[in-house]
Give the backbone structure.
Amino acid sequence: MATLSTTEQLRESPRAPREIEVPAPTAWPFILALGAALLFAGLVTSTSVSCLGALLSVAGSVGWFREVFPHEHEEVVPVLPEDIRLVTARRVVDRLPILPDQVRAWLPVRTYPISAGLKGGLAGSIAMAVLACAYGILKAGSIWYPINLLAAVAYRESLRLVPAQLNSFHADAFAIAFVLHGVVSIFVGLLYGAMLPMFPRRPIVLGGLIAPALWSGLLYTILGLLNPLLASRIDWTWFMASQVAFGIVAGLVVVRQASFPTRENVSFVVRAGIEAPGTIPSRENGENHR
């Protein structure tokens, strides 16, 4: 379908083209993406999954390449003029505050330091660990039960544990689960520190409800590949509760840290610390910063 500029050209010029050539639709990029996903998923599942992923990746690459060479696959579509009229029921337009030396608004206006994300991730990891251990004590009768299940994500030996062994302490599984939980929590905390400034009005709703719901939905679809043992024994009610606890605690810790103005509107030379006369504000006595 034509854009506004194309529509205006069609009206002004009777010789404007009525049809254009566009790339033909193809499914090869999706096959390549699926193959790459299975290729890496096989690293934590089985070799056969990686082999299937490699086969699909090669097939997707070759098929996508043949869509372009030696001849591009295209199809002809009609260009249809369309009148686009924007209608709104609002009577007042909200305007963003823009500094005098800015040509456009930069969002977010303020952000948090990296330390805020680190603190939020660590605090959220503690809240999640408390609920996970409570689940282990109340449902399985052992604090080590959820720890051994988590270790099965990266530790294949945990998959061989019988139900009785899941309730006992294993030093190797504990070390792997501790490192895995800490690393993932820190990365998610850093992600919260970057996302929450973009939602200044309802940061806790995003961090405590929306993000855990999306994350849990994603894990629900792929958990069988990542951790078959956890997928067969997980209690999704407790899992969602632990995710919400992480989001709320991490969000509260992040938003309570001191924020500072973003520097996207500052020139690159200033951000890089390069002395560039003309871009550095002058001092009160008229001399430039050195």
About this structure: The radius of gyration is 27 Å. The first helix runs from residue 4 to 12. The CA atoms of residues 19 and 78 lie 4 Å apart.
